Amino acid sequence: MPKVLYLRLIEKKRNEIVVFLNMSKLRFGLIGQSLQHSFSQQFFNDFFLKNDLNGSYENLEFERIESLKSFFKEAVYNYNGLNVTIPYKAAVIPFLDQIDEEAKRIGAVNTIKVVSSKLIGYNTDVFGFRQCIKPFLTNKHEKAMVIGTGGASKAIAFVLKKIGLDVLFISRHIKDSNDVFTYEEVNNYMVDACKLVVNCTPVGSYPSINDEVFFPYEHLTEDHLVIDLIYNPSKTVFLEKSENHGAQILNGSSMLREQAMKSWQIWSQKD
Asked: Does the active-site annotation cover 140?
């Protein structure tokens, strides 16, 4: 074989290997509006490094939901999977090709898998929250107060109702529903009845760590379990004040880890 032809074959093979390596690189990202508070990027990139995986995870900030439509058209070719956070967990649904039955019942998606150029939506918040509260629930927790009515609260309420708890929602906006109340309507009777309180809003998250949820902390007792889905900071003003009034507290760090690994299980599962 002529030397020139031989060298060209080697170069062709080298290029094919480079293309293969680029194709095999796994690419993921988190969709949200403001992601300064998020640890997801660090969590997954550390996970890829620790497990010797050729993958990357990036933050994808979108100021408006309209920008996502054009992004998704390209995402099917550029990403293997995506996570979704506040405020787009419900808003992304119309852009997806398919939705898992559980996510459909919840009405919120936080995990998207790309399969054959199609976007399939899932909700791993349910799994993450269920896992993190298991060790803390007692027979005193018969009713729950869920603060917020966004995508995260839908998953939390889904879990609580499934295990038999009655749920009251607290919202800034008055809604035509028997189980939704404004912050101003929360009183000592409601707090006493709801021994589980879960904050599903971003109030108090980094960088606005001095902000707090409007809540009558004085009615909390040692029988209350107060959960804040925020994990940055590790103890929000809401949790600190709840703890000062005797309540047991839990932040969202364990839920983050559980739901993240569930997302990875979905992304890495062969179809």
From this structure: no
Q: Are 151 and 89 in contact (CB under 8 A)?
A: yes
List alpha helices for 112-236, DSSP H: 125-133, 151-162, 188-193
Domains belonging to the chain, first-starting first, are 3-123 (3.40.50.10860), 127-255 (3.40.50.720)
Neighbours of 191 (CB within 10 A): 19
Report strand pairing: 143-147 vs 225-228. unpaired
User: What are the tens digits of pLDDT across the range 71-80?
Assistant: 999 999 999 9
What confidence tier does 266 reach under pLDDT thresholds 50, 70, 90? very high
Q: At what angle do helices 253-268 and 125-133 cross, to 10 degrees?
A: 140
pLDDT tens, residue by residue, 46-59: 999 999 999 999 99
> And the tokens for 207?
């960088």
Q: What is the pTM of this model?
A: 0.85
- From 12, 25, 89, 235, the catalytic residue: 89
Distance between CA atoms of residues 159 and 108, nearest Å: 13
